[in-house]
UniProtKB/TrEMBL annotation:
Protein name: 3',5'-cyclic-nucleotide phosphodiesterase
GO MF annotations in UniProt: 3',5'-cyclic-AMP phosphodiesterase activity; 3',5'-cyclic-GMP phosphodiesterase activity
Superkingdom field: Bacteria
One of the GO biological process terms: cAMP catabolic process
Lineage: Bacteria, Pseudomonadati, Pseudomonadota, Betaproteobacteria, Burkholderiales
Domain (Metallo-beta-lactamase) ranges: 17-219
Classification via InterPro entries: Metallo-B-lactamas, Pdiesterase2, RibonucZ/Hydroxyglut_hydro
Length: 272
């Protein structure tokens, strides 16, 4: 399974795109500004979109993608999200004021898009082209939110994405029961902005260190840092490097190797 990083920044700037991942060629995870770098043909191949939550940096280009390729599709785009996320999109974006309601265009019987609600803990069978299983994981954020664990339907390792979250014990309980090939986890703010991170329910390097100690001692997989604010990315990664040097990520003495922590970059392709 291939995961293409379309966007992994916590805000926009030159060469920075907000959160969006293309899994194989037919599944989109979040619809931030990175989605706009796909060609029309690439966007047309997407059958399913799964959304972590309703914040603009994760949904901004969904209406624009629909406008670009809806007429090229023979079936509605399927958008899967928590009920609260769907309600927010209906009320604030697809409301015929900010953007047309594509669930009713060209008709309610044959729209360009259909919403499909899911619940935390649910497993979704998605992908007519390349079947995949998507499990909805818990997240702790300022709005109802989730993360995802995704693998090919025939089996294999999971690609795990935390979504936007602060400390999240339930997430680790579930992830520690999985065969994980790679973890993408947010760290939006530096420790200098730790109070802001806590208030907005994001991670900073210090809380990331605390979270990563929850990984089972028997697990060892690459950990990719995402959602860094462009103005703080170098500071965040420097602080993470310092914490790793001081062994702040170790689960228990001698219990797990030093974690393989990397900065996620746009246009990177992860193979799981």
């Amino acid at each position: 399974m291939q995961v293409r990083v379309l966007g992994c920044s916590g805000a926009i700037a030159k060469e920075c795109r907000t959160t969006s991942f293309l899994v194989d060629s037919d599944l989109l995870v979040d619809a931030g500004t990175g989605l706009g770098d796909l060609t029309l043909d690439e966007m047309s191949l997407i059958d399913d979109v799964v959304l972590t939550h309703s914040h603009m940096d994760h949904v901004a280009h969904l209406p624009l993608m629909l406008d670009a390729v809806a007429g090229r599709r023979s079936t509605p785009l399927r958008v899967h999200a928590l009920p609260e996320t769907i309600e927010a999109l209906r009320a604030h974006i697809f409301n015929n004021v900010i953007w047309p309601d594509f669930t009713r265009i060209p008709s309610e019987a044959e729209p360009f898009m259909r919403f499909h609600p899911f619940a935390q803990g649910q497993r979704l069978a998605l992908g007519a082209q390349i079947p995949k299983v998507v499990e909805v994981l818990p997240a702790v954020h300022t709005v109802p939110a989730c993360g995802f664990a995704i693998r090919r339907a025939e089996g294999g390792l999971h690609w795990v994405f935390s979504g936007d979250t602060e400390r999240n014990e339930a997430f680790w309980r579930r992830v520690n029961a999985m065969d994980v090939g790679a973890l993408v986890i947010e760290t939006a703010f530096s420790d200098r902005e730790r109070l802001l991170a806590e208030r907005s329910l994001h991670l900073s390097p210090a809380t990331l260190a605390s979270e990563l100690t929850r990984i089972s001692p028997h697990h060892n997989y690459p950990i990719y840092i995402t959602h860094t604010k462009p103005a703080e990315t170098e500071e965040i990664m420097s602080q993470i490097d310092m914490l790793a040097t001081n062994h702040e990520f170790v689960f228990e003495p001698g219990g797990v190797p030093e974690p393989d922590i990397r900065w996620l970059q746009r246009d990177e392709i992860l193979t799981v």
